[in-house]
Amino acid sequence: MKTLFLLSCLAAPLLQGGQFDSARVPESAEWYLHFDLEEIRESKFGKVIISEVTKEHGEAIANIESIFNLNPLEDLHDVTLFGNGKPDHSAVLIKGKMNRGHLEKNITQADDYRVRAYRDVVVHTWMDDSGSKRQYAAFHLDDLLVFSDRMDLLKLTLDTLAKKKPSVTPDENIFAGEMVHAYANIQKIELNDDDGSRLLRKVEKVTITLQEEGDKLMTQLLLIPKEERNTLRLMKILDGLIAFGMMSDNDLDQLDLRTQLINNEAKKVTMLITLPVDQALDLLGKLANK
Fold it and tell me: Cα dihedral angle (38, 260, 12, 207), rounded to 10 degrees?
């Protein structure tokens, strides 16, 4: 199945709700992906998606709620994934309304469950379903769960949350109302050596955000080229890729998809992409059925 990420941003900087909080992420993180589930639930786009997920997976959601006393579609505030650029070196932060005691009791039923201590934090560890990889989880307070399959990364994250280790630099490109915020330091991420990766290596850093503004989904894609001389080239490539995609795919060609390229600085490429919410939902439905 194909997937299409239509991301956006427009608004003044303001940290609120389940928005990305850089203070939670260790300084060594070279990429992160944040979902503000509160904003998603309030959006027209999110309401329809949640409704469809509930219809199709209602029984599974009910099972999760009965086992963990937690409805993931209603009780979670936000989810942040991040890593240091190496394969499988990643962690997840889950924030929400959770019954910590109930969750910890159920974790003890996992395969080869053990408990460890790190500083004053209880670390739960068990084997995954395949029996090949050990998992680690710990609570920071009662509403923030840290999860990873690397104990060293879990420890680092707990230290960052406790302000014993530095966090990533606050992102100046965070805006109020974002549903999704993604960032990657491309030069620090291990990539396959193919044509696509070699092209991506021309970029130093990338930030992508998704927001609903009125009846439209809006995307901001910010690229910082590795070399200033590639700025205009990247602008042309981006514009060309979208135009080519729309011409070669009938579903895309029928959309009221608008793009705007902005280059206010010598070494920065910004693209704004807008699409009516109803068209985005219709497109996702078609893609899901392919």
Answer: 60
SS3 at position 117: strand
CATH number, domain 56-161, options 3.30.565, 1.25.40, 3.40.1000, 3.40.50: 3.40.1000
Structure tokens at 142: 């009662």
Per-residue pLDDT of the chain (290 residues; tens, 9 = 90+): 222 222 222 222 333 458 899 999 999 999 999 999 999 999 999 999 999 999 989 999 998 888 788 898 999 999 999 999 999 899 999 999 999 999 999 899 999 999 999 999 999 999 998 888 999 999 999 999 999 999 999 999 999 999 999 999 988 777 778 999 999 999 999 988 776 778 888 899 999 999 999 999 999 999 999 998 888 888 888 888 888 888 888 888 888 989 898 877 778 899 999 999 999 999 888 877 76
